[in-house]
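Deliverable D2.4 — example input (structure tokens):
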């Protein structure tokens, strides 16, 4: 018999009983080697879920939204230009956060119910001969409409433009295939309470090797410094 709530939303998802039981352990010192013994295999598991080869995993005590903020504030500066398509509430919220951080967002308005428009992204980048666009932001699964975008297709549409590719995979990662390395994603953002089926409270980021060298280290909590992850 199951005591799980019949919650049919993208998250917080039900936590499998085996995971809840695994959480039931005595306190350990988060500054001791015992923590690293738990943490390192967890990071290796995250790399598998994200389809990462090399690169860094950063796990922050935060919502998924905080993970976006970490991605933006650690890699971009006010006045930088980013390109984003708006086709639902989550892509809209990401754009809104970028604007609050003083970024100049070039917005491709797209009807809700459609995914990221590859040809219009290609067109915008081709038109950017001055190479002002620093990053392309893509919401993998737009939770508001349930529409998935073709992330590998976006990278191909970017051609030889040097912009970075940032992906919001909060509701997709762990729930559908994700191939960070194969698709050429620079930063992927996930949250613990959706596809990972864990308690809410962790933002999980995958950072490509190119980006991790430039990560400014803001918001890197002590356990990561100790385990040598940041
Ligand atoms: C849920 C969700 C978020 C926000 O996650 P929070 O942890 O609630 O901040 C961001 N993007 C997408 C696509 C989501 O589904």
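Example output (designed residues):
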């Amino acid at each position: 018999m199951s005591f799980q709530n019949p919650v049919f939303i993208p998250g917080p998802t039900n936590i499998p009983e085996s995971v809840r039981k695994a959480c039931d352990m005595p306190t350990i010192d988060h500054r001791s080697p015992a923590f690293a013994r738990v943490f390192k295999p967890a990071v290796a598991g995250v790399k598998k879920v994200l389809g990462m080869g090399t690169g860094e995993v950063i796990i922050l005590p935060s919502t998924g939204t905080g993970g976006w903020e970490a991605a933006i504030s650690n890699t971009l500066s006010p006045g930088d230009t980013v390109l984003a398509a708006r086709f639902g509430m989550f892509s809209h919220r990401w754009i809104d956060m970028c604007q609050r951080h003083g970024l100049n967002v070039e917005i491709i308005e797209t009807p809700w119910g459609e995914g990221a428009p590859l040809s219009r992204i290609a067109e915008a980048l081709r038109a950017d001969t001055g190479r002002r666009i620093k990053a392309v932001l893509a919401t993998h699964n737009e939770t508001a409409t349930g529409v998935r975008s073709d992330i590998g297709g976006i990278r191909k549409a970017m051609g030889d433009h040097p912009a970075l590719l940032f992906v919001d995979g909060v509701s997709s990662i762990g729930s559908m295939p994700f191939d960070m390395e194969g698709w050429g994603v620079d930063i992927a953002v996930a949250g613990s309470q959706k596809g990972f089926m864990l308690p809410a409270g962790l933002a999980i980021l995958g950072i490509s090797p190119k980006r991790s060298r430039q990560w400014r280290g803001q918001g890197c909590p002590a356990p990561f410094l100790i385990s040598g992850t940041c």
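Confidence is low (pLDDT under 50) at residues 221-230.
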